[in-house]
Structures are given as C-alpha cells and as structure tokens.
C-alpha cells in the first residue's frame, strides 16, 4: 500500500491524453496482469496510463493485484460501455460499507500524492484490450490495440470458447484481429506466426517483450528456502490445468526419479474453478507411478518466487503458452530450465539457455531432468546463459523503454 506509483504522471484533466488499459473482467488472468504491468512501466516513464475497471474489481485494480503493486487512475467501465454491451453493469446504489471504506481509503491515498481528477474517456489516445467494442462511441478517437497475451495457438484456444466453438478457429482469429488498428504481441515469433496465418501484417504488429517483478525475485533469493538441504528440487509454477500439462511433468519426473533418490517435484499453482478433478488426477498418476511421496501439490502460493529462487531445476511442460511468467522469473534468477519447445519459450531461452524437449515427450523430459540434475557445471552454465539472454531483451528497464518508444508517439499524434 505504500508503493502507489504515479510519481511521474501529470494531473489528469480534459486535455491530457493517456493510454487506457482495458483489462479483461477476470482481474487475475494473465492478460490482465500484463496490462497492469504495462501501466506500471508507462507510469515509470512519465506516460499517463489509466485502468478501465468494472466496479466489482475497482479496489482490486487500484491495489494493482497480487502481481503489480501500484495504483493507477481508474476509469469506471460502466461510463463508456455502449448500451446493451454484455459487460455493462451499473454500480450498486448502496455499496457495502466495508467495500466503500476500502475504496475511499485508496482514493484518499492517491489524492494525497497528486492532484487526481478522473480522466475523461474522450481524452484516451490509445485503448489496449481484447474487446474492440468496449469503448463505444466515447472512445471513437482512440487507436484500438489488441493485447495478444499468448501465442496465436493459445489465443485461438481461448477465443474459440463459447459461441465460437463451432466455427473455423483460424477464420474467427483473422476476423477478430482485423477489427483492431494494431496488435501487441509478447514475442516476435508470435507476430511471425500471426502474419503467416494472414491475421496481421507487419505494419500492424507491435512486439513488447514482457518482464517480471525483479525486486520481489531479488527479495525471494534472500528468503529462507522451502526445501530441505539434501533435496534437489524440481519446481513447476503454473495453475493446474490440462493446457499446462503437469501430467507430462509428473510422468517425466517419475522416469528421472528411478535413478536419483534426491529428486523432489513441487507443483506450485492452484487448481482454480472447475479444475479440482485435474489436481486429483495428477495425484492419482503420481501414486500409480510410485512417486506420490516425492510429488508435492503445493497449491497457490503468493510467495511462489521463493520456490523458484531456491529450485535446482525449473520445469515447464505446457502444450501452448505465450512467454510463461515463471520462465521469465527463472531466467532473471539464472536457473537451469527444462521446458517444452514452444515459440515464445525458444525466443526467451534461445537454443543454449535451457534444455528444450518436445511437447508430451515424457522420456525426453525425464532424461533432461536427469542430465541437468547430475551436472553442477551444466546447471551453472545454463543459468548464466539464460540470465544474459534475459538482461539483453527481457529486463524491466528494457520493457519500460520499449513501451515508452511504442506509445509515446501515439499520445503526441
């Protein structure tokens, strides 16, 4: 609550143009966290940024959520959504007393740091989100940029849910991207894939490589280790779901555990709504393979950075992914990484910054864990190389500089 950001942002008035960040309704999603971090980066470079928030998430957005602890000015969503929009909901006339007190506290803290005035929708120069209709006529003058949080394959899987299940995925994907003035990708490889699919041309593709919370990770290195001294900890951070394919991680680990007694696998991540059966399935697979006592389902942890900071190996076996946050964090920490060969992962690790395996290849996963766990020099070399790759293209400083370079000219235009 002490770090409110906003150190460089000017007071908002009707003439101040700004970047409006339209996070999805689910405030804890990866795409939403990316936009919160983008707002923080823009603010650090003195570029006005505002969060578009529905009233139910207003206090969460003001806090910045668990992953981005900064407070940015908020534009309530119901003020700009057009009539009939499925997300348009008027705020309750009599909000709960506790929620009202929390909101008042946050607003008082912001106003004590700066001359804060609610930004007007018409002053938004850029709108970044996933819904091209969210702004309605009040954002007609703003450039619409799609927050493409993930690879094209992962984005199509997410976008094809609901009413798009029965239509052609690629056609729906091309149609959706065509509705935006530009598309913001997390990796150059994702932009290239979208261009090959005919969904975006080079002029409309923007690449902004995300970073991570380096201060929290540095603090985690100084925190006590959650592992015993005689344990070689293999850590997988990610929500438990079939797309993340923790089952392959368990099966690959079981093969590696046949020859090493010190290996322990820690799955750090919650099952989430409707995914409890998958967590139970993972426990059953571990029991079937005889490694139940060495596979730990830790659950969701606010201090997951501590597990990464003290891991021997960081494992990631997703079937589709953008540029996984846990891998960016592991790269900053200089950890040896074993991961599936996905385009965003390859761009982060390159060919020499980790051991890359094919999706679902449990034999290769087990062999890679065994190889890395058994060679101290190899672990150090992999960690040093991936740390250098991170510093070159993914650091917080590089992220903020690139964001400023991309969006500052749009405010002037």
Helices, strands, pairings?
Blueprint: E1 18-22, H1 30-44, E2 49-53, H2 58-63, E3 74-76, H3 97-113, E4 124-129, E5 143-148, H4 152-159, H5 169-178, E6 182-185, H6 188-196, E7 205-207, H7 214-222, E8 232-237, H8 246-257, E9 263-268, H9 276-288, E10 295-299, H10 304-309, E11 313-316, H11 325-333, E12 336-340, H12 343-349, E13 355-357, H13 362-373, H14 376-393, H15 396-412
Parallel strand pairs: 1-2, 1-4, 2-3, 4-5, 5-6, 6-7, 8-9, 8-11, 9-10, 11-12, 12-13
Helix pairs in contact: 1-15, 4-5, 8-9, 8-13, 11-14
Largest sheet: 7 strands, parallel
Work out the helicity level: 40-55%
Number of helices: 15
Low-confidence stretches: 1-14, 24-28, 55-70, 111-116
- Strand tally: 13
The rough form would be described as elongated
Q: Any idea what the radius of gyration is? A: 22 Å
Distance between the termini: 35 Å
Structure classification: alpha/beta
Strand proportion, as a percent range, falls in: 5-15%
